[in-house]
Specification:
The chain is α/β, with parallel strands linked by helices and 413 residues long. The chain has two domains: 257 residues, Type I PLP-dependent aspartate aminotransferase-like (Major domain) (Aspartate Aminotransferase, domain 2); 109 residues, Alpha-Beta Complex (Aspartate Aminotransferase, domain 1), CATH 3.90.1150. It contains 13 helices and 17 strands. Strands 4-10-9-8-7-5-6 form a seven-stranded mixed sheet, sandwiched between helices. Strands 13-14-17-16 form a four-stranded antiparallel sheet, with helices on one face. A two-stranded antiparallel sheet has the order 1-2. It starts with 16 loop residues before the first strand and ends in an 8-residue tail after the last helix. The C terminus is likely disordered. It binds ligand 7TS. Ligand 7TS binds next to helix 3.
């Protein structure tokens, strides 16, 4: 077992100074995570030794590349509790995975009498594809209400399901802004009672907590490699086999076919019918290495570490006058969104950067949620295994600098 206490050493990018000699404090892992050496090396090693295209050659390197690609698929399946690796489709990321479900599963099935249930805390990538489906089919979008603390109002969810028209429920497992962890398992159970299919955006959960598709009971699960220490350009759509088999491919081309005629073709089996063209092979290999790295830390430990950090961050930020924190206090993931009263979030982030602290400021691809919060943007600090309580201290010190510059007094609340 690798220890979380010492894992920071494994991430080369964390060991640098920025902003004129300040040690980098990386608090933007919700946007993308840093990579451990084992992931960087796995990808480099693939290019140095095994580089070839997959599924189409008999030569030694082609066989090695194919084996490495399929080994990565099996590693991902194991990581999310999927018994059948064929249900793991490699795509570019969460965005592509959700678009694939929307276009290929939902669009051909839905009509004007149908409803799609979403929540206002979705990332744009779990909202816009459904808007496109609604526009194409006449289906209606319905939204679960939020409670004041930024959790879902499950009573309003129940009421939506009562319409008898809900065919799809698409929900984020963990909000990338509020940190809210949604009760996806219960939501899936209820959705299934009315015959709806459940799509889970797991971009912020698979990297940070144990996720098992059998326990969640969802029908589709989407996530990105780069947020779980893997390379960019690779992500995963897991789906129930019978649903994936019932879906037409989204892209036509090489590898996704069984037999091609001049006028029509038959398609390959899952997952290959969804993986047209040369896939991101080295990236899959890197993702496999990321899975192994996370397994060596233990996902229970990853979650526990982040819970401790977030509790500490909420305590420290909560003591700062003029800092307004968003999202629930309990049962939340490793992101903390906040604003400093009277200071634009972009100014906060710029000053934090000058102190060596990397955070994200903006709408975080969740504009409807910003409207609900009634703010143009927030500052967001997001944590991962390599962060420490000292990083939280550095954030607090840097925020003191913000308040000094903007003259926000140390007035007590
Ligand atoms: N869903 C959620 C919940 C996300 O947080 C993100 C990315 C996506 C989907 C899209 O993932 P992609 O890999 O396809 O781009 N979120 C963020 C973020 O919070 N800051 O930068 C990207």
């Amino acid at each position: 077992m690798r220890s979380i206490e010492t894992c920071r050493e494994d991430f080369p990018a964390l060991h640098q100074t920025v902003a004129g000699g300040r040690p980098l404090v990386y608090l933007d892992s919700a946007a993308t995570a840093q990579k451990p050496r084992s992931v960087i090396e796995a990808e480099a090693r693939f290019y140095e030794r095994d580089n070839a295209n997959v599924h189409r050659g008999v030569h030694t390197l082609a066989v090695r590349a194919t084996e490495a690609y399929e080994r990565a698929r099996r590693a991902v399946a194991r990581f999310i509790g999927a018994t059948d690796p064929a249900c793991v489709v490699f795509v570019r990321g969460t965005t592509e995975a959700i678009n694939l479900v929307a276009r290929s599963y939902a669009q051909p099935r839905l009509g004007p009498d149908d409803e799609i249930v979403l929540t206002p805390m979705e990332h744009h990538s779990n909202m816009v594809p459904w808007q496109m489906v609604a526009q194409a089919t006449g289906a209606r979008l319905r939204y679960v209400d939020l409670l004041p603390d930024g959790t879902l109002d499950l009573a309003s969810y129940e009421r939506l399901l009562e319409s008898g028209r809900v065919r799809v429920v698409a929900v984020t497992h963990q909000s990338n802004v509020l940190g809210t962890i949604n009760p996806v398992r219960e939501m899936a159970e209820r959705a299934h009672r009315v015959g709806a299919v459940v799509v889970v955006d797991a971009a912020q959960s698979v990297p940070h907590q144990p996720v098992d598709v059998r326990q969640l009971g969802c029908d589709f699960l989407a996530f990105s490699g780069h947020k779980m220490m893997g390379p960019t350009g690779i992500g995963v759509l897991w789906g129930r086999r019978e649903l994936l088999e019932s879906m037409p491919p989204l892209f036509g081309g090489g590898e996704m076919i069984r037999e091609v005629g001049l006028f029509e073709s038959t398609y390959n089996e899952v997952p290959y019918k969804f993986e047209a063209g040369t896939p991101p092979i080295a990236q899959a290999v890197g993702l496999g290495a990321a899975v192994e790295y996370l397994e060596s830390l233990g996902m229970e430990q990853v979650r526990a570490h982040e819970q401790r950090l977030v509790a500490y961050a909420l305590e420290r930020l909560g003591q700062m006058p003029d800092v307004r924190i968003y999202g629930p206090r309990q049962h939340r993931g490793g992101v903390v969104s906040f604003n400093v009263e009277g200071v634009h979030p972009h100014d906060v982030a710029t000053i934090l950067d000058q102190e060596g602290v990397a955070v994200r400021a903006g709408h975080h691809c969740a504009q409807p949620l910003m409207r609900w919060l009634d703010v143009p943007a927030t500052v967001r600090a997001s944590f991962y295994v390599y962060n420490t309580p000292e990083d939280v201290d550095a954030l607090v010190r840097a925020l003191e600098a913000v308040r000094a510059i903007f003259g926000a007094g140390a007035k007590p609340r």
